[in-house]
Known about the structure:
The protein is an alpha/beta fold. It is 26% helix and 20% strand.
Amino acid sequence: MKVDTNGTVFLVGAGPGDPDLLTVKAKKLLLKCDALIYDSLIPQELLDLVPKNCETHFVGKRRGHHSVPQRNTNKILVEMAKKYSIVVRLKGGDPFLFGRGIEEAAYLFKHDVSVEVVPGVTAGIAVPAYLGIPVTHRLAGSSVTFVTGHDGVDKRRPSVDWQGLAKSSDGLVIYMGVHNLRHITDELILGGLDPSTPAAVIQQGTVSGQRAIKAPLSTLFEKAQVEAFISPSIIIIGEVVNYQVEACSPDPAHVTMPIPIEIHS
């Protein structure tokens, strides 16, 4: 998306947390950006890449904490683009997956600001991989559905049809679902998913503090509660969980991350 303007906003995916998973293009932009607008759960190592004279704005959204309204974020992006040549909008994972990247792109385009998208490694694939769990497998999962487990109060669409998802995909990868885990598992079972279906919850994936639990779907909530699992976590449900190969699991990166709290940007 190109429009003649004073500056360009780059919608950049920061990846799942391990700074080594940042793309080469993203790193190049961070090293030379004039302004940085970033979300929650961005590792400090990435923030340290930006030039000392870079103007920074934190606009993360957190469950139970004061958040910057999206309209304010949009305005900041336009203001920075009118002031600077290279503006990086840094978002966790991929900017177009369960974020508001496309909304921000549309707003910027409407205000005659150039936009370029820099895709990032998404947590839904990378986090299970760091535990040696595939999201697909030719013997257990030819399809996978990525779904958000957070029902925002400001969303103007129906809640996720969990019962409908129960048998429509071989596997489910759920973002931001720990808070609603009891509801999610109950609905999936009501929809016909076998209560013994293998499942896992992975907290702080790819970074220091990574931990995981595995359990049948019917007991996943109880086990997660006993082990005090909190966000940020990825939930994966399906037979693919049983194909875990721990020997191929990389060590989580020793990175500086904010206090783990659920985000819904």
